[in-house]
UniProtKB/TrEMBL annotation:
GO terms for biological process: polyphosphate biosynthetic process. It is an enzyme of class 2 (transferase). The gene is ppk_2. GO terms for molecular function: polyphosphate kinase activity. This is Polyphosphate kinase. Its EC number is 2.7.4.1. InterPro entries: PP_kinase (IPR003414), PPK_N_dom (IPR025198), PPK_N_dom_sf (IPR036832). Residues 37-129 form the Polyphosphate kinase N-terminal domain. It comes from the Bacteria. SUPFAM superfamilies: PPK N-terminal domain-like (SSF140356).
Length: 136
């Protein structure tokens, strides 16, 4: 059996909290701008863009750049299988719950499509230039 926690110890430090303290926190939150949060999906695409930038770095060895290109492609595949599929599922089931920044899933998908397409074109260009630059 687990020993019982003394109720006096369980409440230690909690008796000093006043209801006014919580009201002050709530009023502070209401003063913050609504756009302070990043979109979850676009933030993830920005991370994957940084991986692609490493693949485009000519100062890195060719094999390392090819590895970053593979990581980018794998990440993008998983992104579409999990996150984009989740957004599409929300739309199809009628549970079009807004994203964490208050946008509709349809708007989020449009932005994802635009960003992912641009990244995919950069990926293809990086791969082509890497293959052309490699000695045969």
């Amino acid at each position: 059996m687990y020993p019982m926690i003394d109720p006096a110890l369980a409440d230690a430090g909690l008796g000093d909290a006043e209801d006014d303290d919580f009201d002050a926190i709530e009023s502070y939150d209401s003063q913050l701008p609504d756009h302070r949060y990043l979109d979850r999906e676009l933030s993830w695409l920005a991370f994957n863009q940084r991986v692609l930038e490493l693949a485009e770095d000519p100062s890195l060895p060719e094999l390392e750049r090819a590895n970053f290109l593979a990581i980018f492609a794998s990440n993008l595949d998983e992104f579409f299988m999990v996150r984009v599929a989740g957004l599409k599922r929300r739309i199809m089931t009628g549970l079009a719950v807004p994203t964490n920044i208050g946008r509709s899933p349809v708007d989020a998908l449009a932005d994802i499509s635009r960003e992912a397409h641009a990244l995919q074109l950069r990926h293809a260009d990086a791969w082509t230039s890497l293959v052309v630059s490699c000695p045969r």
